[in-house]
Amino acid sequence: MEFKATLKQYQQQVEQALDLLLPPANTRPARIHEAMRYSLDAGGKRLRPTLVLLTAELFGSSADQALPAAVAIECIHTYSLIHDDLPAMDNSELRRGKPTNHIQFDEPTAILAGDALLTYAFELLAKHYCEDASLATALVLELAKTSGSTQLIGGQMEDILGERSQYSEEQIEFIHLNKTAALLATSFVMGALVAHASPEQIAVIRDLGTQVGLAFQVTDDLLDATSDSATIGKTVGQDAAADKSTFIGIVGLDGARQRARELTDRAVELYQQLPAESPFLLELIRKLEHRSK
Ligand code: GRG
Description:
Structural class: mainly alpha
Bound molecules: geranylgeranyl diphosphate
Order of helices and strands: HHHHEEHHHHHHHHHH
Largest sheet: 2 strands, antiparallel
Helix content: over 70%
């Protein structure tokens, strides 16, 4: 099947599971459940949950078995976007081609919707994997660590602190690694955990996911600098507007493109060390380097 059609199938599988596994919009209090679903339903590439499914399949599990983990990671990702868009953070009005959560609802509701999605991710893991307690614990630990103060939140904190001065290259690396690459790496790792991959395989897949995640952020910076809001569905030029010293500022557009290529090549090398094959996953990794949104 053609690449785009296969990707769409995975995205649809994720979207059906999101609908099925989230509390119905009319659950009391309806406003919070509507707000949670508003941002989840607003679209998005579903990259992280798709990676969970693909990695689970790569290591011999079914995608169905990995769906709750895939939904959990999309909940965490969406919470981080809702909070990142708040006036106290990036103050963005457009996300996934729609008004951001605090514009559509209001600030208190957006804060609570983010909090609720963050919490719900762990409820999903505990509930759906409870028959295999060691798997449930491993998934909770993996996702909690990545979402916590040394990684996702830590990356965001350093990003905010750096805005007041100039970022060093080392700081930019820390931010990319923790704010972006960690959650992408965890997507691969959670899929591998569901499929009971060995610790050695998980180490390789984490490294692979980290390279993919770093490449993803470099491409995100390139899109922020060169694309437009209508194409990528979110506010662009924010780095320049905030006078942020990004990776592009240090190495230039061509340097950033070269870096994305090197990181992708490294990810492909790591993929080749794995004991199984997924031509679609390999193509996805390669295509991410040239994504337009
Ligand atoms: C904990 C508040 C808080 C923030 C954590 C993840 C994050 C830090 C902030 C979100 C904004 C941002 C620029 C994150 C970097 C990672 C990134 C490029 C996210 C966008 O991911 P896509 O392109 O989004 O996969 P879609 O909408 O397609 O799911």
